[in-house]
Amino acid sequence: MSRRQEFSDERLLIDLASAAAAVGEPLTATAYDAWQRGRDAASPALLIRRFGSWNEACARAGVATNKTRSTTRRWTDSEVVEIVASYLRSPGSTGTFAGYTAWARAAGEVPSGATLRQRFPKWSEIKERAQQLTGEPEARADEG
To answer: Does the global pTM surpass 0.70?
Structure first.
């Protein structure tokens, strides 16, 4: 008797981005396999079956693979902070990293969650910087 777990495409892509954030990029199937063991996550084989290839799965999740290494940056740090501020101002924003990742996939031409993690390893850091742009009160600094 086997238990067959169903994963949505969205869930698979979120798990890929989470693995990349945890183990780094470029993400290999081997590194992902080690990450997913003991977690409620799909196997690399399922990702390959669902998306046609490991590189395609990673591309859809915004995760770099060995094939897609790049040394150029598409966005400056300031632009990334502005984009996160746009997410925080967007209707229905949860203010979470997972929420940003889903928003970024729907938005299109913005950095993926994985790209954000490469530039700003702590979500709280970039969120705090972005909140300063959203009109929320700044962090208890004296304006003297």
So the answer is: no
If phi > 0 it is left, if psi is from -120 to 50 it is alpha, else beta; for residue 8 that is beta
Report the run of H or E that residue 120 belongs to, with start and end: none
The residue ranges of every structural domain in the chain are: 9-68, 77-130
> Residue type for 16, please?
L
Q: What tens digit of pLDDT does each residue of 59-104 get? A: 999 998 875 444 456 788 889 999 999 999 999 999 999 999 999 8
CB crowding 61-93: b at 16 or more within 10 Å, else e: bbbbbeeeeeeeeebeeeebbebbbbbbeeeee
The single residue listed with the structure tokens 């979120």 is 14
User: Tokens 């300031």 belong to which residue?
Assistant: 78
Helix axes 77-89, 97-107, angle to 10 degrees: 100
